[in-house]
Amino acid sequence: MTPSGKLLASWNTRSIPKVLEQLDLALERWRAMEPEQRMPEHPLPREARPSDAYPQDGLALVVYTRDMPREDLPEAMRGEWRRHAWNQDRFWLRKEELDGLREGKGLPPAAAKRLVQIHGRDNVRGQSPAYEAKQVVKAEVRSRVLEASETRVVVELSGEGAVAQSGVWSIDDRRDGPAEHTRSFEGTLGGRAVWEGGRWTEFQLAWVGTRQGATQFNGRSDDPGPAPMGVVLVLAPENDRIAPSFAWMYGWR
Predict the structure, then answer these.
(1) Structural contact between residues 123 and 86, judged by C-beta atoms closer than 8 angstroms
(2) How far apart are CA 84 and CA 184, in angstroms?
(3) SS3 for 2?
(4) 232-to-4, 175, 203 alpha-carbon distances in Å
(5) Is the pTM of this model over 0.90?
(6) What is the DSSP string of 3-36?
(7) Where are the domains of the chain?
(8) Per residue in 118-143, pLDDT tens?
């Protein structure tokens, strides 16, 4: 899409060659356009964006999701992309949500619940909606101080997280109709974080457990589990301002 609103190319597909084909096509069309066709006639007004809420004095984390090794992987999936699929998102924490970690108090309940509610979804192979707050069964992130001085604090992280939903929805994007389904993810959390020189210099938190069920666009209609899945959170690069995909659920102003 150009700044002037002209569509250059589009294709909703997981096929890397097809995506590359569309990118090449879009670039070809962009180069063929006159400069005045690319840009809007008048400057666009600056509107609020999710990235505006970036926690300057807090923490931005990259969230990776992927399947864990399993013996019962269907034979048809062993040699294709689904075996190695992974996805990513972002998770933000404000300073006041982090202060308790250094004191051995863990994350505040609201922050732990936000983590579990949003990132307990199975998006390894595609898209999946976040859970509702009422569907969070368990959410706790504890911290234990391993080392502490005026300039450096090392903490061990642990906890539990579980979400579950039952209802009526489709699990195949082309063939099936809405029906009764259940989806869930439950596991334990563990990791380590280091605060040094007035900021968090290390942060690793893994949430490993069992996922079950499927949603319409997450590629699980023929592989609903139960099966092992992992979620890992690590520090985002310093210049990373990408907003969480469900930033509006944070309720930040």
Answers:
(1) no
(2) 21
(3) coil
(4) 39, 33, 10
(5) no
(6) TTS--------S-HHHHHHHHHHHHHHHHHS-HH
(7) 1-47, 50-244
(8) 999 999 999 999 999 999 999 999 99
